Fold:
Amino acid sequence: MTQEPADPFDWIRESSRRRREAGLDRALRYRDATSSLVDLASNDYLGLTRHPDVTEAAAEAARRWGAGSTGSRLVTGTTALHGQLEEELAEFTGFEAALVFSSGYAANLAALTTLGRAGSLIVSDEGNHASLIDGCRLARARTAVVPHRDPAAVRKALASHQGPGLMVTDSVFSVDGDLAPLDRLSQECRARGAALVVDDAHGLGVLGEGGRGAAHAGGLAGSPDTVSTATLSKSLGSQGGAVLGPARVIGELRNAARTFIFDTGLAPAATGAALAALRRLRGEPERALRVRQVARTLHRRLTEAGLPATPPDAAVVSVPAPTPEAAVRWAADCRERGLWVGCFRPPSVPDGISRVRLTARADLTDAEVDEAVTTLVATAPPVGGPAREY
Ligand code: PMP
Structure:
């Protein structure tokens, strides 16, 4: 008798059942092109993704250069737009040089796999973004994960290692919006001759003078031991990523980073849009001030209403919910009343606490902020200590 062959994906049945039972199943929802919802869920911090200059730059770049970049950056995938964007990004943020990637994720993998060489140690904050965690996993260096925002733990980890060291941290942590203590982390790194890599995905366009980012705000931009990474998909309203740093580091990435060499270059439309958005930001520094002001207002009004909102150091405000189901219900109730908020559940939250996450936007009116607060308060689950799911 021939035996039925085993089903190679049988394990998925059990895994999806467990996920459903824990209230953690995820589904995609198609958004409409236009919407009457007040948006506190997207990463369009400066309201630039639909700015006519930005969309026109995308369209013009596609007409001129084509829909795709046609190849990897080192072969046919580099246009004059890529060069211009790299030059202006470096100039704006205060770094010597920049390299553009097809995503912020790819930029982070590039920075960590290239700089985290065999024999070196990467010290990584436990709250870091998934792309940094994956960068550590792919790097040939050893990784030490340290407690959240803890310079003393960074010192200890660096001191425990003989070879070269590197510390990596988000500038603004994406779940709660809290800031890394960059000045103290930089001091610890310098005391040990280690490099500091800062993921400024949520800082570019929001922090520092005119939105020049966290490294610029902390006086670290342009220093020989500091590297920053960024996404073009949040404040710059487009898509893509970048690494910013000393010219010799950028040169090394261009020659050795696998996500640069083996990945198709960023599409011309995305490149042109990011460049137009960057120029808009440079010309309108008040956008960075406004997004921070909206975040502070959201936080103040929510805490006055008794909700345990996290203090906003940048543009992100989070409010814990008692369970994943409560977070999902809260977000759905908001949506029904015209407000779009993010819902974060495990495994996207490192501490297992589900939340609604609000991202401030520079183009929200005071009336919209008011309305958002009223909706959030009216639909909030009963206040109690947030429960850990695991
Ligand atoms: N780092 C952080 C902190 C992020 O929040 C994100 C985007 N979610 C990324 C990196 C990745 O950027 P991208 O979406 O451009 O790949």
Remarks:
- The pocket of 4'-deoxy-4'-aminopyridoxal-5'-phosphate is lined by residues 103-105, 108, 129, 131, 170, 174, 199, 201-202, 231, 233, 241 (CB under 6 Å).
- DSSP finds 14 helices and eleven strands in the chain.
- The domain at 29-50+285-379 is CATH 3.90.1150.10 (Aspartate Aminotransferase, domain 1).
